[in-house]
Each structure stands twice: as structure tokens, then as C-alpha cells.
Automatic annotation (TrEMBL):
Lineage: Eukaryota, Metazoa, Chordata, Craniata, Vertebrata
Protein name: Translation initiation factor IF-2, mitochondrial
Matches recorded under NCBIfam families: small_GTP
Protein biosynthesis keyword on record: yes
Subcellular location: Mitochondrion
GO molecular function: GTP binding; GTPase activity; translation initiation factor activity
PANTHER family, per the entry: TRANSLATION INITIATION FACTOR IF-2, MITOCHONDRIAL, TRANSLATION INITIATION FACTOR IF-2-RELATED
One cellular-component annotation, GO: mitochondrion
Chief location: mitochondrion
Organism: Erithacus rubecula (European robin)
Keywords of this entry: GTP-binding, Initiation factor, Mitochondrion, Nucleotide-binding, Protein biosynthesis, Transit peptide
Family to which the UniProt record says this protein belongs: Belongs to the TRAFAC class translation factor GTPase superfamily. Classic translation factor GTPase family. IF-2 subfamily.
CDD domains: IF2_eIF5B, IF2_mtIF2_II, mtIF2_IVc
Keyword tRNA processing (UniProt): no
Length: 733
């Protein structure tokens, strides 16, 4: 009997061991481990003789020990979590980041901010909150805050590229003195400046014996052209032809900053004009010597002497008046005295002894940039130091290039470009801005470092400016908040909070969303231009827009190149208009725009583009209601009549101008103040109801409002007409 009990007890132990093993293996299966039993589980339970003695028990116990050890290790390694209801906060958290840290939605944060001085109208999910507001929101939510450990940001090493040693050398102020042995003569860079339509391009045209002027839209230059002119004597002169139109002031300033000599063109019959004065100022600012070319001297009304005297008022003194400015009377159209002007330019260049170092790393300036469909981003540049060749790695602004091809002004491939030579560069990753300095670097990796550093610096500056604006806004809102608090000072704190919540509650429901639809009174623009300078000129004009109260003007996108499908998508999203300057839109793009109802306005002359823009602004303005007076009458007597149970005041009047038409609107004027506007309830001549009372006739009338008349009141009959408003914006030309 005792033996049977022992066997049964042993079987029970074996069963317990098997159960433990099954438990361990099932937990391993949950964790993803694969286990395949040697025998089916059912057979193990039904046939105790199949259970391996000792081994099974020890395996189960070892698995238990192993499991216990792993659990203990996990407990030891497990980090202590945040206490329930505790939020880890840091400085400069956004609304969205704070909501995520609290495990709440963004609306919860907005609701908590109703009790603060924050302006919810200007708040977005990515708006940065200050530390006080973050702590207050956490506390209002019934939670505790814990400050996160701030990582100390290492000071980033400056990896920018800079020019070689900077000193004053002639008027290229940034060029250092080089070894005289490596200095070689270079062509002078000459910029032609002057008022629009005074003959600048025609002058250059005659010098080059080409038809540049005939190719210009509207006969005016609208971006910088850089050309080499070969003189009969063998000298080369690099000419820059800049626009004279008022819109292109920045281009003219760039032209003078890279030039050695300025030729100021003034029409003999017009004299000194607006852009003439501006051109003189640009030359003075750049410290560049002037040569005066008085053009159109072949015309009968030409008066060169008057031009010279007018220039005296602007400190431009010609040699005949004791100054140092050479003056040459020319006719660019007929080619008169052009060689005299060219010789004067060469003579001045010889006096300046223009030389440059053609060795070492390349330095230059971007004159213009554009996008070509086949070649990609292209730049016109003037090389100022070194010799540019294929394969050079260049940096300009926040982009870089490995030079693939070089072209001259006629589009012919070049092998190299030395100082003073204009060149078109192909190989840019993106288009640099006109006016950016070009620097050669050692490798592509170095170029990427420079671009990364410049991008970083720009981001830091932008963040700094944004922070200043945010702080100024918060200060303004804090003053308003304190003023409101003073007004509510007599209330208890509960009443005060309730009043603030009630006053601000509507803001939570009207807070800004993603703008998919724009107001009717907003004109959204997509601006595309052929070159960077053209886009810059248009944006400078748009910067002068100062009629936001009439119609808001928003620039959604601007860039270079022909109109693309992306531009159509943007215009559709923002209900905008596409303005293109010297660019094209192919047929497929035009059909897509027509299908989606998008306006594409293409122009080749800048003032016509601005006129079209003003017309578009006018179309967005609501019509103005204009009152046209039809007749006037004076109240000579007053009395009243009874209609039913009501007493109705009646005015006895005489029409002294125009006529009174009962269908029109009327107003009552007393002591020059309008005290009523509306319609007549009755108009009678003697006892008859009439429709019209003419000049000199007497009548009785009553208003649609029970209003007492006074003798001497004026009754004005008028008609309201809707008239299209025009914008008061004046772009300056």
C-alpha cells in the first residue's frame, strides 16, 4: 500500500514538472520562439510511462530558475518611469509638442490658453510657447511638470569660404596686391548707364555692329547684357548694358559694383532725367570714374550745352568747365563720334592701369542668372581673379557648381575665362542670385561644407528675428492682458476667470486652420521670370504695395523658368493668378490652365505687367456706390394728416432743381446733416397722387418713417449706381 502511494506521489511530481514545462514553453511561444514537442501533448498526459523521470523534473526546474533570473535582470535594468501625471517639459516647445508630451489633443492646449494673454488668432500648431505658458498649461491640466535636461549645443565651426586677403586696390576694393610678376593687363569693364530710352542699347549696338536693340521687348533693355567689344586698335572692352527703367534700380547698382568705368548716356534733347540722377549716384557710391556721352546730337532740338550745365547741379563737371569728366557728343543711331568715345574709354583705362592676377583660385561676381530648359541653371559672371576652366568647383550664395561648360555672349563654347571677361557658366545645382560673389574651392566636399554653413547661418539669423517678433507680440499682448485684468480687478478670482473664458471662448473656434481657400479680397500671385534680376525687379515693385486695406496681395511663389504644371497647381490651391515676365507657357499648360480656370498673364515689358496687375487688383475690389443727385426741393411748410388711426407728418415743398421721382431714393438734410435716407410713402400735386414733380412745381410728400419736418429742410432725390473701384497703389511709374 505504501509502495502504491509512493508511485502515485511520484506520478504527481512528474505531472507537476510537465505542467511547469508547458507553462514555460507556452510563454516562450508568446514571445515568438518556436517549439515542437517530441510527442503529442495528449499522449504525454495519457501515458505516464512516456514521461522521462528526473530529466523532465530537472529541466522544468532549470527553466523556472532561468525565467526567474531574466525577470530579476529586467527589473534591475528597467528605467524608473515618470510618475503618473508628470510631464517632461523643455524650453521652446511648440503647441503640438506640448500636447504630445501631455498625451492630449491640440484643442486641450488651446482651451488652457484661453485663460492667458496669448493671442489665439496668431497661434498655430508649430507656434513656440514660452516657459511660463508651458508650466501654466500643465498645471491647469492637473499634472506636474519636470524639466528635461538640456543638451549643450557645441559651437559650430565656421567653414565658410572667403576671398584672399582684402585690401584697397583701385576700385576693386576686395583684390589684394599680388606679385607684380603674375599681374597681367585685363580688359576694362565698362557699364553704360542712363535714363530709359536715351539710347544706351543703340550705342552698344553700334559699337558691336549688331542689332541688340531690335531684339529687346518694347525697345528697352530689361536685364543686364555683358559683351566684349573688339576695338580697331586691338584693345578689348567688356561692356555691361543695364536697364534704364525705374523698376531696375537694383540691376544698375550691381552693374556699377563690378565696373571700372561708367559711360553716362544723356539724350541731348531731354537733358537730365530721374534715372540719370540715380545713375550718377550709383557711380559715386561705387567710386567709379565717369565719361559723359551726350546722345542724339543729330536732332534739331539737341542742346548739348544745356545738358552739361544741368549736370553741374549733380557734381558732374566736364573738362571745359574745369572738371575731370570727358564729354563726347555722339549720335548712336548714325554712328557719329563713336570712335572718339571708344578712344576716350581706352585712354581712361590706360590711366587706371588695370591689371589682375590670373593665377590661383577664381573670384568673380554673378551678373545675372537664369534657367534654361536644356542646360539647367546658367549664370552670367565677370571673372575678377584667377582663370576659370571646366571642372572648377565654385560656390555662390547657398549653391555650388562643378563647371561643365563655359559660353561667351554669342553662345559659343569657351575653354577658359580670364579676369575682365564675361562668361556664361553651366553646371550649377541651383540658380544663385544676381550679385552673389563667386569663389572657387578645392573640392565638391568643401563646396558642400560652405553651402551647409551658409544655410545654417541664415537659419540662425531667421530664428533670431522670429524670436524678436514673437517677444514683441507677447509683450504687446501682455500689456492688453494686464489692462483687462485691471478692468476686472473688482471681481473675485472665480468671476474673473469666468469672464476671461467667456470673452475668449469664441477665439478657440475661430483659430487659424490650414488656408485652402483665400478671401475674395485677396490676390494671390505666382511670379515667374526669365532671369533672377527680372524677378527681383518685380518683387521690389510689389514691396511698395501699401493698400492692404483695399485688397491683400500675397506672393505664393516666385522663381525662374517657363510656366509649369506645378505653378498651375499652386494657383489652383490658392485661387491665384500667374504672372510671367519674358517666359512662355506651352499649349498643354495653357489647356490645363483653361480647364482649371487659372489666369496666366504673360508680358515682355515690365510696365505693361504692372498695369495688368493693377487691373487684376481693381477687379478684386468691391464696387463703390455712387450717389447721383436727380432733384432738390425745399420744405416751405409743414402739416399733418390722419390716415386711419395714425397721424402722418407731411411737408409742403417746392422743387428748385431737377425733379423728384417717387421711384428713386430720398434723403432729408437739416443744418447740413443727413438725418434720414429712404423712400417716399406718398407724393402729391394738389390732391392728386403723382409719379414725378418737375422744377418750379409745388408738392406734398410724406416719408416711409414717422419723422417731423422743419421749415427750411432740404429734400434730395438721388439715384445709387455701382462703380468699379480702382486701387490707390502707385508703383512709382
Amino acid at each position: 500500500m505504501s509502495r502504491g502511494l509512493l508511485l502515485r506521489f511520484e506520478n504527481l511530481l512528474q505531472l507537476r514538472g510537465a505542467c511547469l514545462q508547458l507553462h514555460v514553453l507556452s510563454s516562450r511561444n508568446v514571445c515568438g520562439a518556436q517549439w515542437k514537442p517530441a510527442h503529442p501533448v495528449g499522449s504525454l498526459l495519457l501515458q505516464p510511462q512516456l514521461w522521462p523521470k528526473h530529466r523532465l523534473t530537472s529541466a522544468a526546474l532549470s527553466q523556472c530558475r532561468h525565467l526567474a533570473t531574466k525577470e530579476e535582470t529586467k527589473k534591475k535594468k528597467k528605467k524608473i518611469p515618470l510618475t503618473r501625471g508628470e510631464v517632461e517639459i523643455r524650453q521652446r516647445m511648440t503647441v503640438e509638442e506640448l500636447a504630445q508630451a501631455m498625451g492630449k489633443d491640440i484643442d486641450h492646449v488651446y482651451e488652457a490658453l484661453l485663460y492667458t494673454d496669448m493671442n489665439l488668432n496668431s497661434l498655430e500648431p508649430d507656434s513656440i510657447l514660452n516657459e511660463d505658458h508651458i508650466k501654466m498649461i500643465v498645471q491647469k491640466s492637473g499634472m506636474k511638470y519636470k524639466s528635461a535636461k538640456l543638451k549643450e549645443e557645441k559651437e559650430r565651426k565656421n567653414t565658410d569660404a572667403v576671398k584672399r586677403q582684402v585690401v584697397n586696390c583701385s576700385f576693386w576694393l576686395f583684390l589684394p596686391p599680388a606679385d607684380p610678376a603674375v599681374l597681367t593687363p585685363r580688359p576694362p569693364v565698362v557699364t553704360i548707364l542712363g535714363h530709359v530710352d536715351h539710347g544706351k542699347t543703340t550705342l552698344l549696338d553700334s559699337l558691336r555692329k549688331t542689332q541688340v536693340a531690335s531684339m529687346e521687348a518694347g525697345g528697352i533693355t530689361q536685364h543686364i547684357g555683358a559683351f566684349i567689344v573688339h576695338m580697331p586698335s586691338g584693345e578689348k572692352i567688356t561692356f555691361l548694358d543695364t536697364p534704364g527703367h525705374a523698376a531696375f534700380s537694383a540691376m544698375r547698382a550691381r552693374g556699377t559694383n563690378v565696373t571700372d568705368i561708367v559711360i553716362l548716356v544723356v539724350a541731348a534733347e531731354d537733358g537730365v532725367m530721374q534715372q540719370t540722377i540715380e545713375s550718377i549716384q550709383h557711380a559715386k557710391n561705387a567710386g567709379v570714374p565717369l565719361i559723359l556721352a551726350i546722345n542724339k546730337c543729330d536732332k534739331p532740338e539737341a542742346d548739348p550745352e544745356r545738358v552739361k550745365k544741368e549736370l553741374l547741379a549733380h557734381d558732374v563737371v566736364c573738362e571745359e568747365f574745369g572738371g575731370d569728366v570727358q564729354a563726347v557728343n555722339i549720335s548712336a543711331l548714325k554712328g557719329e563720334n563713336l570712335m572718339v568715345l571708344a578712344e576716350a574709354t581706352v585712354a581712361l583705362a590706360e590711366m587706371l592701369e588695370l591689371k589682375a592676377d590670373a593665377t590661383g583660385l577664381v573670384e568673380g561676381t554673378v551678373i545675372e542668372s537664369r534657367k534654361d530648359k536644356g542646360k539647367g541653371p546658367l549664370t552670367t559672371a565677370i571673372i575678377q581673379r584667377g582663370t576659370l576652366r571646366k571642372g572648377c568647383v565654385l560656390v555662390a550664395g547657398k549653391t555650388w557648381a562643378k563647371v561643365r561648360f563655359l559660353f561667351d555672349e554669342n553662345g559659343k563654347a569657351m575653354d577658359a575665362a580670364s579676369p575682365g571677361i564675361p562668361v556664361e557658366i553651366m553646371g550649377w545645382k541651383e540658380s544663385p542670385s544676381a550679385g552673389d560673389e563667386i569663389l572657387e574651392v578645392e573640392s565638391e566636399q568643401r563646396a558642400q561644407e560652405v553651402v551647409a554653413w551658409r544655410t545654417y547661418v541664415e537659419q540662425q539669423e531667421r530664428m533670431k528675428k522670429d524670436l524678436e517678433v514673437i517677444e514683441a507680440k507677447q509683450k504687446e499682448h501682455r500689456v492688453e492682458y494686464e489692462k483687462k485684468q485691471q478692468e476686472l480687478a473688482h471681481l473675485t478670482w472665480r468671476q474673473r476667470k469666468a469672464a476671461l473664458y467667456k470673452a475668449n471662448k469664441h477665439l478657440m473656434f475661430s483659430r487659424p486652420k490650414e488656408k485652402t481657400e483665400m478671401d475674395e479680397n485677396t490676390l494671390s500671385l505666382i511670379v515667374k521670370g526669365d532671369v533672377d534680376g527680372s524677378v527681383e525687379a518685380i518683387l521690389n515693385i510689389l514691396d511698395s504695395y501699401d493698400c492692404e486695406d483695399e485688397c491683400k496681395l500675397e506672393i505664393v511663389y516666385f522663381g525662374m523658368g517657363d510656366i509649369s504644371e506645378n505653378d498651375i497647381s499652386l494657383a489652383e490651391a490658392f485661387n491665384g493668378v500667374i504672372f510671367g515676365f519674358s517666359v512662355k507657357a506651352n499649349e498643354s499648360i495653357k489647356k490645363l490652365a483653361d480647364k482649371k480656370g487659372i489666369k496666366i498673364k504673360l508680358h515682355n515689358i515690365i510696365y505693361k505687367l504692372i498695369e495688368d496687375l493693377k487691373d487684376e487688383l481693381n477687379s478684386r475690389l468691391p464696387p463703390a456706390v455712387v450717389e447721383t443727385t436727380i432733384g432738390e426741393a425745399s420744405v416751405l411748410d409743414t402739416f399733418s394728416v390722419t390716415v386711419g388711426k395714425n397721424r402722418v407728418p407731411v411737408a409742403g415743398c417746392r422743387v428748385h432743381k431737377g425733379l423728384l421721382d417717387r421711384k428713386m431714393k430720398f434723403k432729408l438734410i437739416r443744418n447740413r446733416d443727413v438725418i434720414w435716407k429712404g423712400c417716399l410713402s406718398s407724393l402729391k400735386h394738389h390732391k392728386d397722387d403723382v409719379q414725378v414733380i418737375k422744377t418750379g412745381m409745388d408738392c406734398g410728400l410724406s416719408l416711409d418713417k414717422n419723422l417731423e419736418f422743419s421749415i427750411g429742410d432740404e429734400i434730395i432725390c438721388y439715384e445709387e449706381k455701382e462703380v468699379q473701384q480702382t486701387t490707390s497703389w502707385d508703383p512709382g511709374f
